[in-house]
Amino acid sequence: MRTRVKICCMASPSEVRAAAVAGADCIGAVGPMPSGPGPIDEETQRAVIAATPPGVTPFLLSQALDSEALVRHVRGTHATVVQLVRHVDPRLHLDLRGALPWVKIVQVVHVENETALPLARDYAETADALLLDSGNPASGEDVEQLGGTGRAHDWRLSRQIVQIVDKPVYLAGGLTQANVADALLAVRPFGIDLCSGVRTLGKLDLKKLTSFFSALRGAERSL
User: Fold this and answer.
1) Which residue of 119, 141, 161, 222 has the fewest CB atoms within a 10 Å radius of its CB?
2) DSSP code for 145
């Protein structure tokens, strides 16, 4: 099965076009975040989503915990897929569906330890897909980490999540051309998500992007 690829942290329509040409299935427009690369203002989010070509799905990343704020954010950007980057009460999913029934929900699960397994199982009841990331929202640090960390987590736990849920699962966290083959073999995700692994000094690096897709497709052929 072909692995879907989401290239996140889009900064402009030109980056969207470059990601699409390279072979991305999805792109990510990042809303306000307490940390990590890629946050853009709402006007730019809207432009990035509008510039996404047919056949590529734009995701809006939101940290909103309040249903009214989340609905306003989604409506303001014209997004049809929202990626919730915090651990939330699943009732937020239901509130969003009630207000915007056409919007798909991708729920992030920060895989810190074994508690991610029951959390993922519960989220799979109300979300359309899960995305396993390496954030540490309860770290107690001054700045929360909700993604874009550039580090991998325990893929053994990610594999278990893939096995116990019946929804598509994306794998994120520290993926590069050097480890994507190992990631596919270890986790067997529906899709993968990356940001820093195809960037240099914060800018989308076309050479890294091309090398990543080459490594990914080569890994798929060997599975």
Assistant:
1) 222
2) B
d(CA 197, CA 205): 9
Token pair in block for residue 5: 């690829």
Q: Is 28 helix (H, G, I), strand (E, B) or coil?
A: strand
Residue 97, classed as helix, strand or coil, is helix
Residue 45 vs residues 1, 154, 163, 181: alpha-carbon distances, Å: 31, 31, 34, 31
Range list of H helices, 9-115: 13-22, 42-51, 67-77, 91-99
Task: Decide: helix, strand or coil at residue 168.
Answer: coil
Sorted by where each begins, the domain ranges of the chain are 4-222
Q: Which CATH code fits 4-222?
A: 3.20.20.70
Can you tell me the distance from the alpha carbon of 20 to that of 26, in angstroms, rounded to the nearest whole number?
A: 8
Tens digits of per-residue pLDDT, 74-131? 999 999 999 999 889 999 999 999 999 999 999 999 998 899 999 999 999 999 999 9
Considering only CA atoms, give the Rg of the chain: 16
| Cα–Cα distance measured from residue 98 to residue 15, given in angstroms and rounded to the nearest whole number | 33
